[in-house]
Structure formats: structure tokens, C-alpha cells
Amino acid sequence: MREPFPGERPKADALVTDRPGIAVGASTADCGPVLFADPHARIVGAAHAGWKGALGGVLENTVAAMERLGASRGAIVAVLGPSISARNYEVGPEFVDRFVAADACNSRYFVASGTPGHALFDLNRYTVDRLAAAGVAASFLDRCTYAEERLFYSYRRTTHRSEADYGRQISAIVLED
């Protein structure tokens, strides 16, 4: 079958496939798009990994879904695409508390910002470290959606400017026949 989805498309933060010609992707505007591949098993995946999804296990669940199709965890490679950088991702104390409550070691992803009681969060490093802990070879592009406004949409940037909409970019992967 080469039809993407009969009827209404699913709402999900990740998709995997072993079918050539079917692209899977993640739409983002500051969150991390992660593309996965096991080239030996010929299985690919894409995940939308914002702070909530990364903390909640979307990366590990994507790897597990790939394994159910026959992928080998040790053969999976992943790349984190353009997302907001730590220097532009200021968060409040409740955000930091949520991460530290989940795992005290998460404090390493935060540094004090110029705003009292706030911190800068390194979503990129957090994402790549979660992938590595899951046994996946991972890297990231080190491209900032907030700072590189000629190239990328950014929800946070347009919110700071009180602009009407912010657009999206899509990162996709497909198996060739």
C-alpha cells in the first residue's frame, strides 16, 4: 500500500515506517525535529521533540516503535534539526523545577539567565543526551530557529514581537525504493 493514511490523518508527535516512498516528518517552530534511521533494517522515523515530548519520552518511544518494525537500537542514528538554542530559551523557575523533579541530573541543562529566578534551557543538549542514553547515535545541526530569522520560523521570536503568526518548518525523511 502506498497511500499515506486512509481517512483522517493521525495526530502524533512521532511516526515510523519501513515502507519505501512514504515520507515521515515533524513540523516545528522552535521545538526539535528529530529524524531517525536504521539503514540496515531500512526503517526511518521522525519525532517532534519539544520540552514536553522530550521529557515525556517521545524519543525513547520512537526508538521502541522502530524496534517493533525490526530496527536494531545500536544501528539507529538520529539527527536533531534546527531548534531554539539555549542562549534564546529563557524559562521560569517552575519549568526548571519540573525537570529537576523528574531527574536531579537535569539541573545540568540550565544556567542562570539575566532575569532573576529564570534560567536558560539547553533543549538541544537535553535531546541529544536523551537519545544517547537510549543507545542511539545522535548529533545535532546547531542551528537556532530564534536567532536565524532569515532561515527559520520561531514561535518564541514572534511571540516576543507580538506578531500574528510564526509559520512552521518541516523536517522529513523517506526510504527510497
Provide a descriptive summary of the structure in words.
The chain is of the alpha+beta class. It contains five helices and ten strands; from the N terminus they run E-E-E-E-H-H-E-E-H-E-E-H-E-H-E. The strands form three sheets. The protein has a five-stranded mixed beta sheet with strand order 1-4-3-5-9. The radius of gyration is 17 Å and the shape is globular. 34% of the residues are buried.
Query: Roughly what fraction of the amino acids lie in strands?
Result: 25-35%
Overall domain count: 1
Tally of alpha and pi helices? 5
How much helix, percentage-wise, in residues? Answer: 10-25%
CATH architecture: 4-Layer Sandwich
By CATH, the topology is CNF1/YfiH-like putative cysteine hydrolases
Broad CATH class: Alpha Beta
- What radius of gyration results from the CA coordinates? 17 Å
Strand order of the largest sheet: 1-4-3-5-9
Which key phrases capture this entry?
single chain, 177 residues, alpha+beta, CNF1/YfiH-like putative cysteine hydrolases, 5-stranded mixed beta sheet, 3-stranded antiparallel beta sheet, 5 helices, 10 strands, globular
